[in-house]
């Protein structure tokens, strides 16, 4: 069924390309694959088009579907294929890159012909339940040095009912989209003259990040992790030792001219070579291991402009980074401990059920991307496979997804639109210790290089915040809500009592605000609900006389009047247990 749907969506991309050729005769075709959520096609257009043009394109697609054109495959020798596509420069480029003995296949539907490996449905009439969703820019082959093309996204299903259900889900996703909701709730903002991928965390968003950081650092301390604090930048010498200068420099912000300056610095894209200095500070023996070093690290990565999105992909971000230095005998238990830590974090945050696992390996056919020998990679990957299998972890393999210095376990998570990103990584590394001369004296008196586990416990804080916004639609669990209680006095006469309530709540560390505006209570309640505050405490004459509050839950509605100390006991229980509601 899944393969049938992918075939239908691939055919829908061709129907869209045919519609574009009819409506915009000068358009040049790039590529148009099916994707998990639908399909897209990249076009080189002389004029710009926007969302308002999608209706006309969709109308032409429906016309092509009604024509019920037969979709036929045919093959050509290279010379004839190039002649056929001579007016399509992107197709010519793709043909020229095919191996000499490759089968060059095309698909024809009516007047439209496209270079394609297939497969496709038999007739355009099957592409009925289709919807174009958005138009955006995309660099040819994802390289910002290439031309910016016009990408149109769409989706298709086998019937209109399935399409309608999907579109309803998309509408719900739009309501939860962190990029929209996070701004509406005043959690973060962005400013053009500051730059892409550099968000400003507003007070409420900054408070949530602070709560998460304190939670992570306290939990890591309980598990034997030692905190470090390292510089945001270093001389290129450091990155040359680690290999980042040769394998990651394009992703770094370099300060100075590498060709002319004697001392060139770069902002750190990761913390590992800095934290190793804590191990190297003095001689070590096996008795010092395992050494668990953690840091709340601000990192800088020179991501492409087209990759920036809300809080998901940034140029400056903060991560719960750690490096664990251990003996070979300790490796499996320590890896298990790292995985248990991430599982605890994900379960506490309410994200555990949404993740999947990828065993990211090297690509032996692309040796330039990596350091180390084939034997070292085989050993590291073999050890990691043994560990993952012993743990009974259900994972997929991602060839070519490893870090340049070692294999890794990527904990993947999807946003509300179904796009998958890496949230947490745990990596095994036996190469950088040797590069930095990291040694310990073993029981037999010989010096050995330790293994290193690179890991995050909660991943990138900003990305985690984005996922939490979407998971809870902004209605965060009480323990992480930036404002936990809103006190709503019925009138000015009860402002003093409202202030007393706030003062008592604050004594217990509860985050509280008082709505002092001269508005009707119904308006104040609606405003607090829009802000998704967990609890509203309405106070008037009766509450002031009884030392009570009238409690309104954001989900359950009116709970009734309770003594203030009873309410405090109840909310403190939810905060201390980190209840997910």
UniProtKB/TrEMBL annotation:
It catalyses: tRNA(Thr) + L-threonine + ATP = L-threonyl-tRNA(Thr) + AMP + diphosphate + H(+). This is Threonine--tRNA ligase. One of its GO terms (cellular component) is cytoplasm. One of its GO terms (biological process) is threonyl-tRNA aminoacylation. Residues 203-477 form the Aminoacyl-transfer RNA synthetases class-II family profile domain. CDD domains: ThrRS_anticodon (cd00860), ThrRS_core (cd00771). The gene is thrS. Zn(2+) binds at residues 272, 323, 454. The keyword Ligase applies. NCBIfam families: thrS. PROSITE patterns: AA_TRNA_LIGASE_II. One of its GO terms (molecular function) is tRNA binding. It is found in: Cytoplasm. Keywords: Aminoacyl-tRNA synthetase, ATP-binding, Cytoplasm, Ligase, Metal-binding, Nucleotide-binding, Protein biosynthesis, RNA-binding, tRNA-binding, Zinc. Homodimer. Its cofactor is Zn(2+). Belongs to the class-II aminoacyl-tRNA synthetase family. Binds 1 zinc ion per subunit. Its EC number is 6.1.1.3.
């Amino acid at each position: 069924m899944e393969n049938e749907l992918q075939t239908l969506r691939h055919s829908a991309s061709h129907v869209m390309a045919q519609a574009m050729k009819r409506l915009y005769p000068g358009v040049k075709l790039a590529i148009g694959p099916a994707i998990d959520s639908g399909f897209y096609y990249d076009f080189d257009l002389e004029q710009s088009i926007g969302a308002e043009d999608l209706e006309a394109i969709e109308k032409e697609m429906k016309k092509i579907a009604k024509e019920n054109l037969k979709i036929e495959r045919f093959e050509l020798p290279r010379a004839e294929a190039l002649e056929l596509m001579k007016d399509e420069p992107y197709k010519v480029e793709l043909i020229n890159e095919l191996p000499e003995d490759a089968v060059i296949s095309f698909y024809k539907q009516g007047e439209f012909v496209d270079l394609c490996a297939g497969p496709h449905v038999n007739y355009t009439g099957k592409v009925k339940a289709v919807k174009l969703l958005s138009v955006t820019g995309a660099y040819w082959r994802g390289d910002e040095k290439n031309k910016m093309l016009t990408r149109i996204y769409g989706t298709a299903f086998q019937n209109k009912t399935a399409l309608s259900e999907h579109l309803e889900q998309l509408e719900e996703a739009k309501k939860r989209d962190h990029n929209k909701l996070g701004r509406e709730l005043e959690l973060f903002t962005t400013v053009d003259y500051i730059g892409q991928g550099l968000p400003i965390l507003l007070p409420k968003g900054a408070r949530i990040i602070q709560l998460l950081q304190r939670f992570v650092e306290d939990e890591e301390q309980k598990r034997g992790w030692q905190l470090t604090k390292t510089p945001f930048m270093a001389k290129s010498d450091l990155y040359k030792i680690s290999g980042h200068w040769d394998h990651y420099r394009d992703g770094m912000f370099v300060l100075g001219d590498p060709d002319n300056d004697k001392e060139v610095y770069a902002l750190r894209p990761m913390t590992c070579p800095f934290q190793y200095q804590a191990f190297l500070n003095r001689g070590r023996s096996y008795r010092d291991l395992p050494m668990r070093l953690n840091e709340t690290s601000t990192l800088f990565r020179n991501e492409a402009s087209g990759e920036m999105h809300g809080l998901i992909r940034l140029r400056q971000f903060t991560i719960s980074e750690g490096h664990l230095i251990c003996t070979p005998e300790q490796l499996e238990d320590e890896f298990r401990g790292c995985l248990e830590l991430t599982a605890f974090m994900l379960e506490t945050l309410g994200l555990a059920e949404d993740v999947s696992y990828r065993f990211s390996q090297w690509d032996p056919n692309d040796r330039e991307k990596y350091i180390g020998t084939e034997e070292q990679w085989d050993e590291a990957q073999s050890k990691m496979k043994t560990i993952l299998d012993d743990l009974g972890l259900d994972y997929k393999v991602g060839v070519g997804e490893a870090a340049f210095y070692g294999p890794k376990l990527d904990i993947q998570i999807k946003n509300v639109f179904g796009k998958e990103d890496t949230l947490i990584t745990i990596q095994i590394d036996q190469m950088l210790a040797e590069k930095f001369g990291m040694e310990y004296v073993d029981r037999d008196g010989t010096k050995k290089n330790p293994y290193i586990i690179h890991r995050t416990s909660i991943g990138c804080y900003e990305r985690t915040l984005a996922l939490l916004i979407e998971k809870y639609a902004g209605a965060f669990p009480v323990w992480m809500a930036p404002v936990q209680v809103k006190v709503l006095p019925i009138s000015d006469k009860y402002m003093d009592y409202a202030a007393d309530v706030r003062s008592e709540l604050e004594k217990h560390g509860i985050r509280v605000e008082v709505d002092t505006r001269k508005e009707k209570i119904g308006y104040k309640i609606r405003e607090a609900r829009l802000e998704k505050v967990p609890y509203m405490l309405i106070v008037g004459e009766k509450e002031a006389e009884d030392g009570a509050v009238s409690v309104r839950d954001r989900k359950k509605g009116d709970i009734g009047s309770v003594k203030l100390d009873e309410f405090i006991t109840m909310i403190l229980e939810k905060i201390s247990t980190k209840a997910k509601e």
